[in-house]
């Protein structure tokens, strides 16, 4: 059901629509540990991202293409505040982050002080936060990628040209995005007696 939900969300936020092969069996249990094992953290660099997606049979270009989903949604300050405050011994702030954008982010995310501090959210794409489009890539060209794992796609030579192409041609990106989503939907498919065919999509039988 997740594959269908992803497709419908893409359609509602821009109009990208694609056919999804039906008939997948759903799992009976969801485990947080399995999510964190499979989703790359926001601190990954390009090479780590490429390796992470390769383990699932996805190419570097498909990884960059799917990253465009960050054109919608939000991120907690804790996922990127290290880029704003005490970045390293040389730079107080991540030099790959546009200074004006960093100043804006600091108005939304105060310096971390304690574990009970509020953890606000900000849009992953500061321009078209509720529209699935290639604005995400245009922001990367301006060094306005929110997460380290976003901006590294442009600053790393192995993926930078892919970002440029997606920024220039939104239609070509949307076609690649649809194809990559369909391919991702066929990863780790349950077979035989694994999982179940849901009688009601939102709950286990």
Report what the structure shows:
The chain has 205 residues and is an all-alpha fold. Helix content is 41%, strand content 3%. The protein has helices at 2-13, 32-38, 46-54, 60-67, 99-108, 135-141, 148-155, 160-168, 170-184, and strands at residues 74-76, 121-123. Strands 1-2 form a two-stranded antiparallel ribbon. Helix 4 (60-67) packs across helix 9 (170-184) and helix 6 (135-141) packs across helix 8 (160-168).
Distance between the termini: 14 Å
What would you report as the Rg, rounded to the nearest angstrom?
A: 18 Å
- Helicity range: 40-55%
Sheet with most strands: strand arrangement: 1-2
Mean pLDDT: 86
Number of helices: 9
Instruction: Report the biggest beta sheet as strand number plus sense, adding barrel if it closes.
Output: 2 strands, antiparallel
Shape descriptor:
globular
Number of strands: 2
The amount of beta strand, in percent, is: under 5%
Q: What structural class do you assign from the helix and strand content?
A: mainly alpha
H/E element sequence: HHHHEHEHHHH
Low-confidence spans: 1-8
